[in-house]
Amino acid sequence: MDLYFSPLACSMATRVALYEAGAEANYLEVDPPTKKVLDDGTDFRTVNPIGLVPTLRTDEGVVLTENAAILQYVADRFPQSGLGAAEGIDRTRLHQWLCFIGTELHKGLFIPLLDRKAPQETKAYALEKNLSRLDYLDNYLKGRDFLLDHFSVADAYLVTVINWTMATPPIELAKWPNVKAYHDRLRQRPSVAKAIAEEFELYKAEQARKKAAA
């Protein structure tokens, strides 16, 4: 399968999940400004017209988009990994957390803060409206190792998003000690540590390309 990604973007969650599952994949880096696939220079929008990562092409040639859907596919494709959840309420809770991370944290809180073109008023509004989501998460994680009773694709997504606090100074993670402890703990997990280290090196190369082109 092929995973189209950009370094340290939300697509890193799928890399973590694939490493956790011990799955083989081709990792194809997409340059965010140009939407070019760096491996061959092709236009990524011929694969995903919206131009957003992650995008996954399965071994059967099916193209999947949207982070939550791709993560659930990986969990179902590799059931031995334990990344998913059993049918019934456990699976619904997995869906619940994927939705929460995607809407309340990823899009609601972090995207306005990470967008360099967003007005300061927009950033201030996002903080005012959505910091309470971290309060909720901090309370939930008290005494818990994971979002469910085991490491799941929801944790792969959450640790990826929480990792963005390094680039969002208004969010001081120490204010949410349970979230910070969760993030520190999961960063030591082999699949997460490997993904972060590899993508950080790619991110530095990406920044160097931008500087050279400026």
From TrEMBL:
InterPro entries xrefs: Glutathione-S-Trfase_C-like, Glutathione-S-Trfase_C_sf, Glutathione_S-Trfase, Glutathione_S-Trfase_N, GST_C, Thioredoxin-like_sf
Superkingdom, taxonomy of origin: Bacteria
Domain GST N-terminal: 1-82
UniProt xrefs under SUPFAM superfamilies: GST C-terminal domain-like, Thioredoxin-like
CDD domains xref list: GST_C_Beta, GST_N_Beta
The GST C-terminal domain, residue ranges: 87-214
The protein's name: Glutathione binding-like protein
Lineage of the organism: Bacteria, Pseudomonadati, Pseudomonadota, Alphaproteobacteria, Hyphomicrobiales
